Amino acid sequence: MLKFALVAGALMVVSTGLSAQEASLRCPAPGSKVERTNLPTIAYRGADPASPLVCLDQARQPRFLGYWSTQSAFFNAGGKQLLSTFAEWKGGPSRVVNIDYFGSDRYGNSTTANEKWQILGQERVDVHAGSFDAVKVRRIFSIVGTNYVFTETLWIDRASGTPVRSVVDHMNATMSPDVTSWQATEVITRPSGS
């Protein structure tokens, strides 16, 4: 088990220059967990046997890349495309995955959502839990025909597969209460197979 010491500091970004083989994505090993600022800890049980990029948390809830719920509308509409594109990724920017789906707003009105997903590459990120060589993923969400837009950027520790930071930029006055910025305060990893 590795523990990363608490390190205060701001986000620092530099290129890591990782090889394609080192760049692949995976789920955190069973028993790994990430403690987050202002959000509950996520503890992991390992990868879903049917999909190595869908990680099961302690409550056996499936999470795409260990973070986003696979029960979400975006995953129902574009999960296969996301899994295919992200599983093939070997470093550098990926192609953009564009997902459209229907839903309803808080008033029950029908809406069309659009999401654009992309792996932006790899970089070093510093958070309260330490410094990580990370894979950077960007998600841009919008409601078609409105000014409701947010961009969510997630950094995933390359060594363990654990998400370590999320930054959300809301581009409008209305903010979703369940889409928020956070960073890891502690990351506990276990070797695969332990």
Q: From the alpha-carbon coordinates, what is the Rg to the nearest angstrom?
A: 16 Å
Coarse morphology: globular
Low-confidence region ranges? 1-21
The rounded distance between the terminal residues' Cα atoms is: 9 Å
- The fraction of residues assigned to DSSP E strands is over 45%
The proportion of residues forming helix, as a percent range, comes to under 10%
SSE class: mainly beta
Q: How many strand elements? A: 12
Q: Number of helical segments?
A: 1
Mean pLDDT comes to: 84
Output the helix-strand order: EEEEEEHEEEEEE
**Largest sheet descriptor:** 12 strands, antiparallel
Question: Layout of SSEs?
Answer:
Elements (H helix, E strand, L loop, with lengths): L1 E2 L29 E4 L2 E10 L2 E7 L4 E3 L3 E2 L3 H15 L9 E8 L5 E18 L2 E14 L5 E9 L5 E8 L11 E8 L5
Antiparallel strand pairs: 1-12, 2-3, 2-12, 3-4, 4-5, 5-6, 7-8, 8-9, 9-10, 10-11, 11-12
3D structure, described in words:
This protein is mainly β and 194 residues long. It is 8% helix and 48% strand. The chain has one helix and twelve strands. The protein has one helix at 73-87; strands spanning 2-3, 33-36, 39-48, 51-57, 62-64, 68-69, 97-104, 110-127, 130-143, 149-157, 163-170, 182-189. Strands 1, 2, 3, 4, 5, 6, 7, 8, 9, 10, 11 and 12 form a twelve-stranded antiparallel β-sheet that branches. The longest helix has 15 residues, at 73-87. The protein is globular and about 45 Å long.
